[in-house]
Design brief:
This protein has helices at 4-33, 39-85, 91-127, 131-147, 149-161, 172-175, 198-222, 228-236, 241-245, 247-250, 255-259, 261-286, 292-317, 319-339, 347-375, 380-400, 407-434, 446-456. The chain is an all-alpha fold.
Length: 465
């Protein structure tokens, strides 16, 4: 029998898998599908700008009042609204729904991270294990299931758009403009990014709306309300509003969080480069928009498998070794992309880069999330809100300069942030090695454990983490 906490991790993971099957597929296509006047990239910029704003105050307020479960459901509803906006994409539909998605995005992710951290600590206490090991394991399982959403979402888009009979043949003159050798700003106006038939677009977006609603149903029905009593107690004994409102900013007094900002922002830079620049300037330019889904499926499969692998491997290798592997992989890819001239005859190469990028991203995602949970166990909501805020700032900056900076300079910027991360992250890791952060006392989750005991009719020994 699997434990109750492990069951909840699986429910959260499957819910996010369903939700991001829709959102991930739409995000990969925005720079190509809604290329007119940069509308697609602009909508992504608005999403992450809204996430920054919501990260400043919404996560602690929503999580403490609603609890993690219902915060996740509310955040998912915001994501579904963006899929609805893509039925009739235009400035008056995409931008408002992008803002709504962004406002719900930070509470959604902060609630998920808080939920996994609580579950990991409770399970570690129950089994007498080290809290950080169980948290790492749970985040690895989550990202293993969650990152496979890139496979299913992009498979749907590729199969549906593959039915289009108006797939253009790419002339040699256009191939000369692909990759970093050319500026890459005019790719959006050539024939390969012509929108597929409107009927196919509606079919795809309709499927995405359906799986988004399914995600909300899965969480609402099957997820345990693990912090219900804590939320009820908070509502009954409210802290001053300004205290909760400023929780995200108060944590910035901790020098460890400030030192982790380059690492967190790099996560946004590297993800936005693959979904916004690689798909447009390499894949769409040289192969056509119908290949975007297949290439991003490769990224998702690699990301998913490596998330599971590195989540289990971290207890043996430590975080630092994995971060080093990710940095080397990204560094190598960036240098290669600066010199590679994409051509349809090199089809396999188009899949090598997302496979390596997916491996690296698996490390950035699993280990950075786990690191925040380990460093700030008593301020989880504010810590993960900061994570989303700084990661989203990386997205906003990257999508913001997407329409006017040449591709070569974009690669140099990603490389510079990576090198800065390689300088700042080891400082925090060394300090944590010398002065380990004590895990949260098990008594914090005593109410939940007592509920679990009643439900399972078994006694759980009170083992200190």
């Amino acid at each position: 029998m699997i434990s109750r906490n492990f069951k909840n991790v699986l429910v959260v993971s499957v819910g996010f898998l369903s939700l991001f099957t829709a959102y991930g597929g739409l995000q990969s296509l925005q720079s190509s599908l809604n290329a007119e006047q940069g509308m697609g990239v602009a909508s992504l910029s608005v999403i992450y700008a809204s996430i920054i704003i919501s990260s400043m105050f919404l996560p602690p307020i929503m999580i403490k009042n609603l609890g993690c479960k219902w915060t996740i459901v509310a955040g998912m509803a915001c994501y579904v609204s963006y899929s609805v906006g893509n039925l009739y994409p235009g400035w008056y539909t995409l931008i408002p729904t992008s803002a709504i998605l962004g406002l719900g995005g930070s509470p959604l992710w902060s609630a998920k991270c808080t939920y996994l951290t609580i579950s990991g600590n409770v399970q570690a206490a129950k089994e007498g294990k080290k809290g950080s090991d169980v948290i790492n394991h749970y985040f690895g399982i989550f990202f293993f299931i969650f990152q496979s959403s890139a496979v299913w979402g992009n498979l749907m888009s590729s199969l549906i758009f593959g039915q289009d009979t108006n797939i253009a043949i790419i002339p040699d003159e256009q191939l000369q403009t692909c990759g970093a050798a050319d500026c890459g700003l005019n790719v959006s106006v050539n024939g390969t990014t012509t929108r597929p038939a409107q009927k196919l677009v509606w079919t795809l977006v309709g499927c995405y709306i359906g799986v988004g609603l399914l995600a909300m149903l899965i969480i609402a029905v099957f997820l345990d309300n693990i912090d219900q009593e804590q939320a009820s107690e908070f509502r009954g004994n409210r802290e001053p509003f300004c205290h909760t409102f400023l929780a995200t900013f108060r944590l910035l007094k901790d020098w460890r969080l400030l030192t982790l900002i380059p690492l967190t922002m790099y996560s946004g830079f590297e993800q936005s480069f693959l979904s916004g620049e690689y798909t447009k300037n390499y894949v769409t330019c040289a192969l056509g928009i119908h290949y975007v889904g297949f290439v991003m499926m490769c990224f998702g499969a690699s990301n998913s498998l490596c998330s599971f692998l590195f989540g289990r491997l971290a207890r043996y290798t430590g975080r630092a070794a994995l971060f080093l592997l990710a940095a080397v992989a990204n560094f190598s890819c960036i240098i290669a992309l600066l010199f590679w001239k994409p051509h349809p005859d090199q089809l396999a190469v188009f899949f090598v880069f997302p496979a390596l990028w997916g491996m690296a991203d698996a490390i950035w995602q699993t280990q950075t999330n786990a690191l925040y949970g380990i460093l700030f166990p008593r301020d989880k909501e504010a810590a993960f809100a900061n994570y989303r805020m700084w990661e989203s700032l990386g997205f906003v900056i990257a999508f913001g300069y997407s329409t006017f900076l040449c591709l070569e300079y974009k690669l140099y910027i990603v490389l510079a942030v990576l090198l800065l991360t390689a300088i700042t992250y080891p400082i925090v890791e060394y300090h944590e090695y010398k002065n380990p952060t004590p895990p949260v006392n098990e008594g914090t989750y005593l109410n939940h454990k007592e509920t679990t005991e009643r439900d399972e009719n078994k006694i759980i020994c009170q083992t200190r983490i």
